[in-house]
Amino acid sequence: MSGTETSTDSGKHDFVVVSNRLPVDRVVEPDGTASWTRSPGGLVTALEPVMRQKDGAWIGWGGQPDLEFDPFESDDIRVIPVALSAREIENYYEGFSNDTLWPLYHDVIAPPTYNREWWDCYVEVNQRFADAAAEASAPGAVVWVQDYQMQLVPKLLRLLRPDVTIGFFNHIPFPPYGIYSQLPWRTQIIEGLLGADVIGFQRVADASNFQRAVRRLKGYSTKGYQVEVPLVDQSPGVRVFGEIKRQGTFRTVVARPFPISIDAQSFEELARTPAIQERARQIREDLGNPSSIMLGVDRLDYTKGIGHRLKAFGELLAEGKLSAEDVTLVQVANPSRERVQAYMELRNEIELTVGRINGDYGTIAHVPISYQHHGFPREEMVALYLAADVMLVTALRDGMNLVAKEYVACRFDEDGVLVLSEFAGASDELKRALLINPHDIDGVKDAILRAVAMPKRERTARMRSMRKRVIEHDVSRWSDEFLKVLESRAHNGTSGHELA
Ligand code: F6P
Fold first, then answer.
1. Mean pLDDT across the chain, nearest whole number?
2. Helix, coil or strand: residue 495
3. The CA-based dihedral angle spanning residues 334, 336, 338, 340, taken in that order and rounded to the nearest 10 degrees
4. 301 Cβ below 6 A of ligand 1
5. CATH number for the domain whose boundaries are 2-260+478-499
6. Which tens digits make up the pLDDT trace of 389-441?
7. Which atom of ligand 1 is closest in space to residue 149's alpha carbon?
8. 375 with 281: CB under 8 angstroms?
């Protein structure tokens, strides 16, 4: 869907979303013509009705350096692009966001880099997003800030616009204090987040980790899902805080789980399309009609446990418990953050392993792993989900993992087995998956064998129960629940002066 670009509005909006990436990408064709193309994310689908109802605007980066654009309209969404220079992409996006925060928040699976220039740039870029949000917000607007790239925006925005109600949702895990405390700027990030009225996390554990960090670093009290933030912050010093508390001069911030989901209905609708079902049959045939197709779909990221999955699969082939004639693993690895060193190394490792397994156990007719290093259109993804007898989600740490939910949403035939890491947020909800610890390679192997051999009746019972959860708790319910809590916090505020 491409954007119709008009610019006829007042410039002020009652509902504003702020995220690193816009819901549209700037696409330049080989002949030089350029347009904005809607990216098919669940977030934009969920927010579309609110956007329309409330004259919403979306602030974000267009995905390429130095894209200077005036705000425009794209399929009823007001899009406000924020330009980032090549240096800012390097320091704020690739550096601080994806080589400091990302590995730190994912249990230091890869070592985080702490670089002071990157931090300075993160502050600078967060300020630019906060300025843009302050500019775009009508009096008393609701602003919803998304994800770890934007953690300072709530405080910076509150300083500029104490009248607005601010929500923040963290799409990735929030780490335990023992890990979080490594961050040289740990207090500034907590202060940044506490500028929000409501802070959403994927899991109960993430909200608890955050609250512990607040208590340790700021000395504020937490009660249930509420954090008490003194209006005049004189920390450190619980004693001073005690006096403030007696005067009752604090605001409460809600910090609680809101597990995100997908637009389940739209996945099911695609899966019911005859052309897509035919494509699923074609995929099986093209793979040589194996008795079992296993599927992995991930961004090529070290948090996804792709190497662990391949190790388990390779050992099963080596032991003769699976054979290339019987089983094919389709691994879709979406290219991601390709200029970050850890991602370059991961690609080399994974591709070496895939090559070895295919070389060692393949035959002329059968290749054990069909490896796809590119994204696919949503229709093709749905066909793959329908073709897959077993879906492998082996993340070492994952905020939610929407792929697991997409697989379940597509399986209206109540068939297919989901093998799911307990370290993915989705495992809190999809309890009838075969839950695994991806570090336990023997456990993963057992789960794969069990999945391949699972009787139809058990597959149906498990899938039926998971489908109920995913269909009832879809992404609209997620955004409705978050926004309901957020709107109930309007006028909970303080003034920018008091927060400074
Ligand atoms: O969910 C985590 C996240 O970083 C999102 O913020 C982002 O849209 C997605 O993964 C893809 O990452 P990137 O924007 O770095 O390509």
1. 92
2. coil
3. -140
4. no
5. 3.40.50.2000
6. 999 999 999 999 999 999 999 999 999 999 999 999 999 999 999 999 999 99
7. 6
8. no
